[in-house]
Amino acid sequence: MARPDELTFAPLGGVGEIGMNLSIYGLGNRHQRSWLAVDLGVSFGDEEHLPGIDLIMPDIRFLEKERKNLMGLVLTHAHEDHFGAIIDLWPKLQCPIYATKFSAALFEAKCAAERNAPKIPVTVVPSGGRIDLGPFNVEFIPVAHSIPESHALAIHTSVGTVLHTGDWKIDPTPIIGLPTDERRLRELGDAGVLALIGDSTNAVREGRSPSETEVAATITKLVKAAKGRVAVTTFASNVARLKAVADAAKAADREVVVVGRAMERVVQVARETGYLDGVQNFRGADLYGHFPPDKVLALCTGSQGEARAALARIANDDHPQVTLNKGDCVIFSSRTIPGNEKAVGAIINGLVTQGIEVITDRTDLVHVSGHPRRDELRDMISWVRPQLLIPVHGEPLHLHEHAKLARTAGVPKVLICRNGDLVKLGPGDPGIIDQIPSGRLYKDGTILEDSKSRAVVERRRLAFAGCAFVAIVVTEKGELSDDPEVDLVGIPEKNAAGEVIDEIVFDVVVSTVESLPKARRRDPDAMAESVRRAVRSVINEHWGKKPICLVHVLTV
């Protein structure tokens, strides 16, 4: 007798970390499954650990292998950590993509701004709509979040219904878009939910996230009180916040000037999709200098300290059109993403040094998270009443706290998994039944590299201990035919005693070559290896670090 279909879930990114979200759901048996992918996002590189790496993406080799069984990719919303990898990775999958209107429009604008972006078709689904993808019936349920048209997905199957929450919070007054659809979530709970796959980002924070409306009131108060120029920086995608800033400017009789490409792009898409209807027209950065200081507000990119974004350039006083002076005010209407603290701190310090007043969420309610705190997580559990809860979208601490909360809230089964775990959701007892290939891909310039790639590993070593280049010209008998060339990069010029390290290395190269037995002298590879070891050893002796050493032996 054929075994009944199993419903499985596997995270390929976004579990045990925040960012790089990719979840897959499978329906079928061990030999043949249909797959559904949810989101395909990026994480951002960290210069300290990954020099030169801009973006980190999930490794999708498993989905490449299963391409013919992949029914489609469904997007919960248009944040980079949920859709930022599509342009680079979709060509390997070529599957249909489904998203609601705003997400599809923002994706189209992103493709248009990218050089040589492939043509990627997206099917638009109405908010609240349902689509059939093979054996999956996917329903888009509106939830509040910090970007328009965020959706939880109810994935209906023959085995049961899974609620994939995506990023969400409870905000009865979200300014833009629909609040979280409590009524529909309660209906799902009444009908029976097999599993809830839930956002854990704020699972360590008690209480509830404040509303966007409260932030809007604070921003209005601050802008009205400001005497000189005002700059506000926030996540470009937070259209509700952009509207709140525009309303505050209007109340204070100020013109809004948009500074930064990402901000311009979102404003354009938000206007096209009707989310800024009734909001005054914004001005281009070229008009900033035409307005008196108390009549202008600059809406800037750069809330995360990005070096090339508008705010960093303004803080360094090298923006071609926008300047700030003593007595002006900058409002950081954002939260610093972990890992960006240094970069943001440098900008804030730069502004303060110039006598500019800086306001952050440490002192004023100028930002709220788009993720649920503990009371909101309890509400979701009580509405949906899942048989199983799997915490996702969080670091290990967040997952652990979410799991603990779910157990106390009476969820019958709670399971913590990691990227690459294949979890059976039903029928029968849930559990981890297999491992599937997972990992990271690095976007290095225009190339996608495996995380074990030589370039990344070597670059880290180069950043730590520099490089020694040695060129040796020898005769066929292995005698030096000229002085060796030594070039040290990223290595101190002198040791602690004041001796020149170049000269020390030069002497070691000569003495190493001359002391080699005749047979090794005639073997260029053996000579190069002996010199390499000697150079690394002598530099370590005088500096305490072993550089990369490249030796080139030329026979004449």
Automatic annotation (TrEMBL):
Pfam families hit by this protein: Lactamase_B (PF00753), RMMBL (PF07521), RNase_J_b_CASP (PF22505), RNase_J_C (PF17770)
Assigned keywords, A-Z: Cytoplasm, Exonuclease, Hydrolase, Metal-binding, Nuclease, RNA-binding, Zinc
SMART domains recorded: Lactamase_B (SM00849)
GO MF terms held by the record: exonuclease activity; metal ion binding; RNA binding
UniProt KW Glycosyltransferase keyword: no
InterPro entries for this protein: Metallo-B-lactamas, RibonucZ/Hydroxyglut_hydro, RMMBL, RNase_J, RNase_J_2, RNase_J_b_CASP, RNase_J_C
Signal peptide span: none
The UniProt record lists the keyword ATP-binding: no
Domain Metallo-beta-lactamase residues, every copy: 21-219
SUPFAM superfamilies the record matches: Metallo-hydrolase/oxidoreductase
Protein's name according to its UniProt entry: Ribonuclease J
Native source organism of the sequence: Bradyrhizobium lablabi
